[in-house]
Design brief:
homodimer, 217 residues, alpha/beta, 7-stranded mixed sheet, 9 strands, 44% helix, DNA-binding
DNA sequence: TCATGTGAAGCAGTTCACAGCG
DNA sequence: CGCTGTGAACTGCTTCACATGA
């Protein structure tokens, strides 16, 4: 009952949100919750919660609701968060180091096990729990640490080659912060976070209605 | 012909991509390009490019294609990138400082004009072009710098209050990196970037097919 | 009785296919 | 002729509304 292939990323992202919210509720000592209560407290949609969960099975009790801890546990399992994911950061500049520090405490199932950089000046530096290594050692580090996830924080012109290197080394999922269009190698799941695009989206809706709006006249 | 209100964020994000690609082409000396060529070179969809542009007017020449520089200029205008956006960073920890440095060189129309932090130990520190100021001065800084965009890089438990403070100070768009559900104050456009959710999405598709797949047997 | 789980309806976003124009 | 601009078809996601079952 787990069609992992055909699930939309939108659904998966919401599962993450539900899980986070359920953990909060569990900490507050709540034992049961209905989709309606969840929806109104965290402004989500009750029907959508039920539809999302329905893709994976039946988790609720009709007429009652959901068992908070049990549903949280089931979601962890569904998302694959009951495993550990060794993670390597490629590009230990400002952003790479900041993410390394961030993930030291907020990582959940992800553990930073290595960080590499091209610039010899940064090599040897301790960042959180790892020491920066030269990029040449990437493949060896991935092998020895068993890293399956990569974080790409290199300049845009170096992004594609480093993505290819990660793929060749055996990493299977990459979170990329470099701007520009990358081609995902076979067998690698690529997710882009583009700061510039996010800011430009905000700019668009900021300007919306000032520059040109014949109907507001 | 610019229905700025009713345009989907998906469309807006693609406009950013088109713009970036067109700038590249302009640098390479290309003068004209068809939607088909754009699509095949950067794997986009030709029909989608035309549909996206069609929401804002007619930019092409039938039988020929688009004038690269002209279309780029028009997209800049549409996205509102022909203006400058003073930007304030709230939370100058590791991530805030990293973003400040990043935006020093990659900012485009966005300019970091201030950074504040709660922790007195960080105050006074120079980061890129700004000096970290205490959070208490936020409203005054927004006023004096004219900041219209905020970047939130504070711990999750402080996120809502700082978002509210930004809104009260007059900031109209916020890019938030803190996890958790925030309530956007009236008149503020909020965009969330949640590292944890991105990683969990990757984890889901990584695990997909291992744990439970009756059909692969 | 009451909230889940779910077909059916509704809406949004994408792709198709071609009329229209340079 | 060739490519844009666009109605129409299609696909996928969300919301609705109710039958089902604890």
């Amino acid at each position: 009952m787990a069609p992992a292939g055909g699930v939309s990323p939108l659904t998966v992202n919401r599962l993450s949100i539900y899980l986070r919210v359920l953990r909060q509720l569990a900490e507050q000592g709540e034992e049961r919750i209905s989709s309606q209560q969840l929806a109104s407290r965290y402004d989500l949609s009750a029907a959508q919660i039920r539809k999302d969960l329905a893709q994976f099975g039946e988790f609720g009790i009709r007429g009652v609701g959901y068992d908070v801890r049990q549903l949280a546990a089931r979601l962890e399992e569904l998302l694959g968060l009951d495993r550990r994911y060794p993670l390597v950061i490629v590009g230990m500049g400002n952003l790479g180091r900041a993410l390394a520090h961030y993930l030291e405490f907020n990582s959940g199932s992800f553990e930073v096990v290595a960080g590499v950089d091209n610039d010899p000046r940064g090599v040897g530096r301790a960042v959180g729990r790892v020491t920066v290594r030269p990029s040449a050692e990437l493949a060896e580090l991935v092998r020895s640490t068993g890293a399956v996830v990569g974080v790409l924080t290199v300049p845009p012109e170096a992004a594609q080659e480093n993505l290819d290197a990660l793929a060749a080394a055996g990493v299977r999922a990459v979170l990329n912060f470099a701007p520009g269009r990358l081609r995902a190698p076979r067998g690698v799941r690529l997710k882009n976070v583009d700061l510039r695009i996010h800011l430009e989206e905000l700019a668009f809706y900021l300007g919306a209605g000032e520059a040109e709006k014949p109907q507001r006249r």
